[in-house]
Design goal:
single chain; 201 residues; mainly beta; eleven-stranded mixed beta sheet; 1 helix; 9% helix; 39% strand; signal
């Protein structure tokens, strides 16, 4: 009986094997099969969501006004995407009127003179009013001491409204000017602007 059962099982297995279908490969003679691939950029550039407007910036600019090796004053412009152009306690630092010969400050959008000015910069550009004053008339210098992490696509221009002049601070980081005690327009808040422009190639 066991032999008959075994024989039946073997016969069933052979019949099942003989009924299996063999996979048929298509004829690909003369046909090129292309496998889709994912393209990866190797330029090393970081894309932004607004190329036309330029990237938002996190960076620092230090400016200094100098009379001589003793008399000078400096300010810091701190670009942060989350900052506001108005004066914000704890984020900006107001300029304190001291007893020095030279005073330099940047002006917030709500007209507060600042020693540290935190504000946003994007491709739309930014103009910042500067206030210059001195207890003595004579020749002074405005100097961009350093510019850190501001992309080279941003031009930096110092605009002199008194002399109707402008200078590219990236190319010429020092600018000489006169203050005349008899002419109030030669100093104060209305003479200078620091302008950042995004240059689209």
């Amino acid at each position: 009986m066991k032999r008959e059962i075994t024989a039946l099982l073997l016969l069933s297995g052979l019949m099942f094997y003989s009924c299996k279908k063999t996979a048929v490969q298509p004829n690909t003679d003369g046909i090129t099969i292309t496998t889709p691939t994912t393209s990866t950029s190797t330029t090393g550039q970081t894309s932004t969501s607004s190329n036309a407007d330029g990237p938002s910036v996190t960076g620092l600019v230090r400016l200094k006004m100098t009379k001589d090796s003793i008399n000078s004053d400096g300010i810091l412009i701190n670009f942060k995407p989350t900052a506001k152009p108005i004066y914000v306690i704890g984020e900006d630092a107001p300029a304190l009127q001291g007893y020095g010969v030279v005073t330099l400050s940047s002006i917030s959008s709500d007209n507060v003179p600042l020693a540290i000015n935190s504000l946003p910069l994007s491709g739309k550009g930014r103009s910042i009013n500067l206030s210059v004053s001195s207890t003595m008339e004579g020749v002074y210098k405005l100097q961009m001491e350093s510019i850190t992490s501001v992309p080279s696509g941003y031009e930096v221009w110092l605009m002199d409204g008194y002399k109707k002049d402008s200078v590219d601070m990236r190319q010429n980081p020092s600018y000489s000017f006169n203050i005349y005690k008899a002419d109030t327009a030669s100093s104060g808040r209305s003479r200078f602007k620091l302008t950042f422009r995004y240059k689209v190639n």
